[in-house]
């Protein structure tokens, strides 16, 4: 029996929030703009990743400051950021508002997107209409903000300066294939390893990197996941830190009424599964673990804000580009 999470956590059919607006799928020859809203990308890796996007049939342009580097204060540019806050926000906004650009692709994660959320002209971006935002890790903050302010779903997946697309041995085949499917609108299901709580649930998918979700607590973009499947993943965080962040989100009520949990990769996080099980299974909703989403290899894509389907019988998460009543 399909479960659709409701705003009140009852799971009654038809009571859950609708998926966010899906941007138009990409087509061969579309222009994508690569920007760097977080950390500075390595130029050689960025060019390798851009070449992979070109091989997918896309035209690649770059934000003005994608390779900018500065000397820290008083310039307002720190070494862990790709450029000043104003320049990074400006590149992102200009790309989003450019009618010739079909998708905004983030060069890499790192740190810095939370610093941009108060600098973007959300009214102007809303007037530009929906388009695809591709990025993961630190880009979680942008996905959450764009979903809240613009009502648009975004693609949580590999970035051009990351290991999946720009590794020394070339792009990772499974991650590349899934990215192509996601960008062109037909992503396939992702297989997990096991269920912590069995069941089947259909609901909008939300979440992303756990560190970013916890960091947004107490801000205007604080996450609330009632009636949604919550994707969680992280990298290089000890189990006690995972516990601390989950406890913060639980205390903030972020998971109240959640419809399910999809647990992605936990690279370098040690034996974190007992912590996740202890904190999440009491919600009594399906929990699927071992999904190759987030960090590590392969890295698959999901549409945050789009309809997700957890089916623990097939041990799979399906992330639909557009809502489908057939999946309910």
Summarize the SSE layout with pairings:
Blueprint (H helix, E strand, L loop, with lengths): L30 E5 L7 H13 L3 E4 L22 H13 L5 E4 L15 H6 L4 E3 L5 H11 L3 E3 L6 H4 L6 H11 L6 E2 L2 E4 L2 E10 H6 L13 E7 L3 H13 L8 E8 L5 H8 L6 E3 L12 E3 L2 E5 L4 E4 L9
Parallel strand pairs: 1-2, 1-3, 3-4, 8-9, 9-10, 10-11
Antiparallel strand pairs: 5-12, 6-14, 7-11, 8-13, 13-14
Describe the structure.
This protein has helices spanning 43-55, 85-97, 122-127, 140-150, 163-166, 173-183, 210-215, 239-251, 273-280; strands at 31-35, 59-62, 103-106, 132-134, 154-156, 190-191, 194-197, 200-209, 229-235, 260-267, 287-289, 302-304, 307-311, 316-319. The chain contains nine helices and 14 strands. Helix 8 links the parallel strand 9 and strand 10 (260-267). The chain has an eight-stranded mixed β-sheet.
Report a brief summary of the structure.
The protein has 328 residues and is an alpha/beta fold. It has helices spanning 43-55, 85-97, 122-127, 140-150, 163-166, 173-183, 210-215, 239-251, 273-280; strands spanning 31-35, 59-62, 103-106, 132-134, 154-156, 190-191, 194-197, 200-209, 229-235, 260-267, 287-289, 302-304, 307-311, 316-319.
Order of helices and strands: EHEHEHEHEHHEEEHEHEHEEEE
Q: What would the CATH topology of the largest domain be?
A: Rossmann fold
Q: Please report the first level of CATH classification, the CATH class of the largest domain.
A: Alpha Beta
Query: What is the helix fraction of residues, given as a range?
Result: 25-40%
- Provide the CATH superfamily of the largest domain: Murein tetrapeptidase LD-carboxypeptidase, N-terminal domain
Supply the number of structural domains.
2
Largest sheet data:
8 strands, mixed
Q: Pairing-aware structural class of the strands and helices? A: alpha/beta
Quaternary status: single chain
Q: What count of helical segments does DSSP give? A: 9
Mean pLDDT: 91
Q: Radius of gyration over alpha carbons?
A: 18 Å
Any idea what the shape is? globular
N/C terminus separation: 9 Å
Side by side, the strands of the main sheet go: 6-14-13-8-9-10-11-7
In the CATH hierarchy, what is the architecture of the largest domain at level 2? 3-Layer(aba) Sandwich
Give the low-pLDDT segments.
1-14, 323-328
Number of E-state strands: 14
Query: What is the beta-strand fraction?
Result: 15-25%
